[in-house]
Amino acid sequence: MGATFQHGWDRVLVAALLMAASCVCGCGGKPTIQSYASPAEVMAAEQSAYKNRDWSTYVDCFTPESHEKAAKFFLPVFAGSLPPLQIKVEIKSGKQTTSSGKETKFPPLNLDKSTPAEKAEKLKRQEEFRAMCAKHGLTDWERHEGENNKQYGARLAAQIKDKRAFMIDLWVQMSPNLRRTAKHEELAELKIDGDNARGQLGHREGKIKESQEVEFKKIGESWRIANPGIFH
Prior knowledge:
It contains seven helices and eight strands. It is α+β, with helices and mostly antiparallel strands.
């Protein structure tokens, strides 16, 4: 995990890979998820939503299982760069201690090279993220002795009451730092087997053209992206 807030944050941004979807409010304030007739249609909706910063639509293009997997993966990354609530941070030295005076196993923030304005901005982003997590039920960041990342991530994610709403808020918060356009090009080699499908998603970064496997799942009458590994 990153030794600095920025490093940890960047790793999360690089992971702009998780979820997507479409949502408008229905009766009683409950979201009515848009239906997609084919894998290609949901893939196009995901890319359009990302470009237009329509994060509720973006998140809903993915399956609920993808939301769960994404939360379990990313929360430990954030925890590596954000000190827990009980941690006291001394800005000048970057030293971290608990209220009892013990040193923590969390890496220092390493803010000493930042300007005062940069330090203030990083700490502000930390508090905004922590407040957003608390709104969704995540308040206990303490890592238990012997916990690996998978176990830690599962325990953090279990505190979040609504994974979909959490992921929407997370993308809204990260939005100012994300690249504006997706680098996807086209969906090819699509193979459909009942309610499951997979294909290759081509994308270009500069002169380099690559492809990655993308999986889809049909839920009811609509297709969703099943793997939270789609890079932008």
